[in-house]
Write a sequence for this structure.
């Protein structure tokens, strides 16, 4: 056995050792979601791409992957939008600014923003899928002249569950952002669209050959959004999607996040649709 | 922690072996007591009414009085933990439910049967909301410690859902079937660190069935290894009679 | 290549010699009918003629349970778990098990290299031994012969009254220093026959498995499978793991530990919120077998199964991976034949 190839270099990193990062600020987004502003030691930049994730941990509680919600264009700190769904997230929700949490990453491929340059960017986000997509949205907004139009379709179960409401209003006001929103079920006060996210797609004004789309949402959403986009004539090669699986280690070792033979933490979470069309477990 | 959680320990129909097992924490008992105030413990103190942050409850419910008491305990307890096979899944007591209750009463109490109202044995969760479980017969000590620490930390304990086989394999125990014995490890919940197989015994299934067990498959395994279909079903019923009620044997 | 003859009577003496050089890990009897790789304390306890051990030598490099880090809840700090090279001799290893180590080496060094595994792997020396294929071995079908010496420093091929001892590397040569053996002039015995075979050459398995996603064999296998996870947990090339937090009873410190996990277990593909991405036993069986013969082999060019037969030998439900694959093959061939017609 050729051991030379295996020699651990003295500087070999410990893949599983988190760095301790400080929560600078917490902001309640809804009853369930909180936005955490996090700073790495010495204000070091995270150096991520939109669509990437980090592993967040609290000692004695656990570790789980979370999408990065801030744009790489905004340096110094990064943001995580986290929904309470289990042990770790419940505990995270109790934390106050000044507390340190463990961070590993960024992991995953993220969106290759170069490929989106000069194109119209269509974002389709359902529910908490807006969290990673916000990173891309703000990237485009911050590098506005590098991209064509920015079209956002956002669907939520109800208006009470809408995330980043102040920003949504900003997007709505902005001339160069085309923002569409719908809720499955609106409260009496809701004046906007009602219906599932796919109802937004037929009405979009799209320059098809020049549009790239990025989808992120709950597992049931993808199939229907794809159908809607297809019936608009958007080519598969112009579609990207961010998928969620159990990315436990984040570094392609633990095996939990596989979709057929693909490791989401390595080949994803952002997939080019033609690459996963034939993966039966993907959608 | 400003104030220590108030803990109460109760028992219903069972052998009280679980409580004995709690007293058996020779190495950890002082650490445990450092975290909590024990306000009731039948094995150790007298009954006193009060409110509890955590109630550990052993035994299954088998009389109208049991039902009344468990409601009372539930009302007073913030967190209720079922401890041991009887409390969690009805345990061996559940075997009683296989036969008509009248027949059981007659056999046990004879002519005096009218003096002793008895019900089919029920796990706690059949009557009240159970927050957490410590499985096993007697309750698994390592699991008790895990649940206990989790509760002291204010977090949800993680419940194992995989089979006892996984723990045997991690310990490289010689497979009980290889030894020519019959084992329920393949469909029994892990969490005991394969205690019995490690010490040369087969798994009797005391920790209850894994979620969504393939019972047909397990029966086939048992029959393949020498049991009759009837014996195989009885084996499965030993600790799981309540769960298997209504399941076709 | 130098060949010597090691008489059966001198095996213990040979083991003792090795023990003077480095710690020796070798198969020992365990229980009634089983064998296990253990640290050798007494040369007489080493068994070189054994069908298989439940856990391959993987357990030394990727331990069943392992501390990844320890933490202090008081000051919210952590430290990486300590990992030492094993620097030992692994004696009596079957060729498929060393081949499996090669697969794991690939997994833990590709992409981001893993310090824990690779540190432990340092300094291992390998003394292999041939074996008589039993009713479960099918290593020949994945290109691994019982006499395969690849990767070994020394290899022992069993004859009736002893072993042909081949020295294969300079490290093997230096291991033998100070231990005199007569040269072996005659050749090695003829190839051993396997009782179990996968019925297509391994380079066609990708093609077959690609066409087998919807084969009824997955549903049929799931009828008897109880999802206990044994097949994953005895596999020498399975490397999946889960991570859990363990807190000390004092609630002041604890550790983040990993332990072997398996894709046959329901919670393996469960995400926060409760969604299970491989809900049925059929889907999980398919995933397990596809991992061995398609998913990983597509990427690495090697089947991720080494034909040790453990998953079948230890399956209480009697599920045979060879039968599953052969069923896929025969259905595939039938479908291609009918396509030609």
């Amino acid at each position: 056995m050729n051991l030379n190839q295996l020699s651990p270099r003295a500087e070999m990193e410990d893949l599983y050792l988190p760095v301790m990062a400080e929560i600078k600020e917490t902001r309640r987004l809804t009853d369930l979601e909180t936005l955490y502003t996090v700073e790495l030691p010495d204000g070091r930049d995270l150096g991520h791409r939109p669509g990437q994730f980090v592993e967040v941990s609290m000692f004695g509680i656990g570790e789980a992957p979370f999408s990065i919600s801030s744009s790489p264009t905004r340096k110094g700190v990064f943001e995580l939008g986290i929904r309470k769904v289990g042990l770790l997230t419940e505990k995270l929700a109790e934390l106050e600014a000044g507390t340190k949490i463990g961070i590993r990453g960024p992991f995953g491929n993220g969106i290759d923003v170069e490929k989106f340059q000069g194109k119209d960017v269509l974002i389709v986000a359902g529910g908490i899928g807006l969290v990673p997509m916000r990173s891309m949205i703000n990237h485009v907004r911050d590098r506005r002249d590098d991209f064509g139009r920015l079209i956002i379709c956002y669907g939520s179960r109800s208006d009470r569950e809408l995330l980043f409401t102040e920003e949504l209003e900003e997007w709505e006001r902005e001339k160069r952002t085309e923002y569409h929103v719908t809720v499955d079920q609106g409260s009496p006060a809701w004046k906007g669209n009602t219906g599932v996210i796919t109802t937004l797609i037929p009405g979009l004004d799209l320059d098809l050959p020049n549009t790239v789309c990025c989808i992120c949402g709950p597992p049931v959403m993808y199939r229907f959004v794809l159908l809607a986009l297809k019936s608009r004539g958007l080519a598969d090669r112009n579609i990207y999607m961010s998928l969620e699986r159990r990315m436990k280690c984040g570094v392609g070792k633990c095996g939990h996040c596989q979709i057929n033979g693909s490791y989401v933490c390595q080949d994803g979470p952002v997939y080019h649709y033609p690459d996963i069309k034939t993966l039966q477990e993907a959608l | 922690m400003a104030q220590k959680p108030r803990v109460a320990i109760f028992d219903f129909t069972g052998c009280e072996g679980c409580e004995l097992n709690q007293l058996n924490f020779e190495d950890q008992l002082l650490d445990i007591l450092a975290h909590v105030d024990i306000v009731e413990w039948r094995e150790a103190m007298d009954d006193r009414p009060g409110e509890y942050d955590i109630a550990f409850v052993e035994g299954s419910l088998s009389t109208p009085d049991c039902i009344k008491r468990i409601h009372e305990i539930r009302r007073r307890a913030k967190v209720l933990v079922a401890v041991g096979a009887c409390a969690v899944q009805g345990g061996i007591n559940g075997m009683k439910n296989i036969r008509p209750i009248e027949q059981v009463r007659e056999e046990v109490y004879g002519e005096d049967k009218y003096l002793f109202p008895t019900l089919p044995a029920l796990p706690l969760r059949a009557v009240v909301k159970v927050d957490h479980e410590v499985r096993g017969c007697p309750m698994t000590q390592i699991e008790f410690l895990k649940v206990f620490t989790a509760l002291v930390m204010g977090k949800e304990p993680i419940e194992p859902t995989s089979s006892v086989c996984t723990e045997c394999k991690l310990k490289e125990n010689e497979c009980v079937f290889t030894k020519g014995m019959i084992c329920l490890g393949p469909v029994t919940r892990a969490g005991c660190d394969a205690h019995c197989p490690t010490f040369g015994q087969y798994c009797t299934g005391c920790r209850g069935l894994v979620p969504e067990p393939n019972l047909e498959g397990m029966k086939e395994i048992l029959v393949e290894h020498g049991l009759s279909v009837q014996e195989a079903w009885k084996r499965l019923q030993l600790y799981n009679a309540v769960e298997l009620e209504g399941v076709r044997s | 290549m130098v060949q010597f003859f090691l008489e059966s009577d001198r095996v213990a003496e040979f083991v003792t010699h090795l023990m003077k050089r480095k710690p020796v890990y070798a198969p020992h009897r365990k229980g009634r009918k089983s064998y296990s790789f253990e640290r050798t304390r007494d040369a007489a306890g080493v068994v070189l003629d054994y069908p298989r051990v439940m856990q391959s030598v993987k357990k030394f490099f990727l331990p069943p349970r392992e501390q990844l880090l320890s933490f202090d809840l008081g000051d919210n700090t952590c430290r990486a778990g300590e990992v030492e090279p094993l620097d030992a001799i692994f004696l009596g290893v079957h060729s498929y098990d060393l081949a499996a180590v090669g697969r794991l080496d690939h997994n833990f060094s590709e992409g981001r290299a893993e310090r824990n595994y690779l540190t432990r792997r340092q300094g291992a020396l390998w003394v292999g031994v041939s074996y008589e294929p039993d009713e479960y071995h099918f290593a020949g079908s994945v290109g691994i012969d019982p006499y395969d010496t690849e990767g070994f420093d020394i290899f022992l091929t069993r004859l009736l009254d002893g072993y042909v001892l081949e020295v294969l590397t300079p490290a093997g040569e230096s291991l033998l220093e100070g231990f005199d053996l007569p040269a072996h002039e005659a050749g090695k015995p003829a190839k051993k026959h396997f009782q179990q075979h996968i019925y297509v050459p391994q380079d066609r398995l990708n093609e077959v498995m690609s066409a087998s996603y919807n084969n009824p064999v997955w549903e049929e296998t799931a009828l008897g499978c109880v999802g206990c996870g044994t097949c994953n947990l005895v596999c020498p090339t399975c490397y999946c793991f889960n991570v859990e937090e363990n807190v000390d009873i004092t609630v002041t410190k604890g550790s983040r530990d990993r332990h072997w996990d398996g894709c046959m277990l329901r919670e393996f593909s469960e995400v926060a919120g409760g969604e299970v991405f491989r809900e049925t036993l059929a889907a999980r069986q398919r995933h397990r077998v596809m991992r061995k013969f398609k998913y990983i082999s597509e990427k690495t060019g090697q089947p991720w199964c080494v034909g040790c037969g453990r998953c079948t030998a230890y399956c209480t439900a009697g599920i045979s991976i060879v039968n599953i694959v052969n069923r896929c093959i025969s259905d595939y061939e039938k479908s291609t034949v009918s396509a030609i017609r």
In short: Chain C touches chain A through 63 residues (CB under 8 Å).
